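Structure in, sequence out. Go:
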């Protein structure tokens, strides 16, 4: 129903959906916005509650590429269930969008990571304690979804290069998702590091699982807005996260523009 309503408004199917996490919204300054739909106008779309996450679906031309931008995601920690958190992704898939780029803010666990680095996700650890595929499965969809290669290597390579070309310090690694909203303890971060996690955050993994289940190709990138608890010298704060995100936002926008202009999105 949501997909039908959006299709009536937008005409053609964009080649890529982009979910904007904290700090990535400056990309909208580089885009030509064709349509703007508030989440509240779309049946079934949940409304975001976090400051800085507005909640609009934008149809835009970004460089050479028509894109759908989800500006303002809803998080599990806001109290939404997994169905709501991933509703927008399923709607993108129902519209026929075949690729999705997920962006987020994360805390750095890898000892070499610094504030302001960007990490392209090679893999993830789902430590949210929930899974968006739990419950009845739609006919024709996998019950036990393979997650061996959740992040598309071709898209991920292009994203990494796009970041280098935008002058960013780029990394690759494993993202671990927690439910939040409290930040982690130093003991948790030490444990996550031993498990192989390079960064920690409170989003993205439900969207990745859902997008893969819908047959979409996924790429994702984290802005390392802070060093994780116990690695960071002081206490963690949302202010630090937002401050780093706004410092690197313009270059993050350059990375997304380079990415959509690359051969990976043809
Ligand atoms: N932990 C969890 N989520 C985050 C962090 C963090 O350190 N930084 C930004 N999002």
């Amino acid at each position: 129903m949501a997909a039908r309503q959006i299709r009536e408004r937008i005409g053609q199917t964009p080649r890529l959906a982009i979910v904007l996490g904290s700090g990535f919204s400056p990309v909208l300054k580089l885009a030509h916005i064709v349509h703007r739909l508030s989440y509240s106008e779309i049946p079934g779309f949940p409304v975001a509650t976090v400051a800085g996450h507005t909640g609009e679906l934008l149809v835009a031309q970004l460089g050479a590429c028509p894109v759908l931008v989800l500006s303002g995601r809803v998080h599990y920690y806001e109290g939404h269930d997994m169905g709501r958190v991933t509703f927008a992704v399923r709607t993108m898939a129902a519209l026929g969008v075949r690729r999705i780029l997920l962006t987020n803010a994360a805390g750095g666990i890898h000892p070499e990571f610094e504030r302001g680095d960007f990490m392209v996700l090679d893999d993830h650890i789902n430590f949210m304690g929930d899974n968006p595929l739990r419950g009845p499965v739609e006919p024709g969809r996998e019950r036990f979804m393979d997650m061996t290669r959740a992040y598309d290597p071709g898209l991920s390579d292009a994203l990494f290069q796009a970041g280098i070309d935008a002058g960013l310090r780029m990394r690759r690694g494993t993202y671990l998702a927690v439910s939040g909203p409290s930040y982690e303890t130093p003991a948790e971060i030490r444990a996550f590091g031993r498990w192989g996690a390079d960064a920690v955050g409170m989003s993205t993994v439900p969207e990745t699982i859902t997008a893969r289940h819908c047959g979409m190709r996924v790429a994702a990138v984290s802005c390392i807005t802070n060093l994780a608890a116990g690695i960071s010298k002081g206490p963690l704060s949302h202010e630090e996260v937002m401050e780093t995100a706004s410092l690197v936002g313009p270059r993050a926008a350059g990375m997304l523009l380079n990415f959509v202009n690359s051969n990976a999105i043809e």
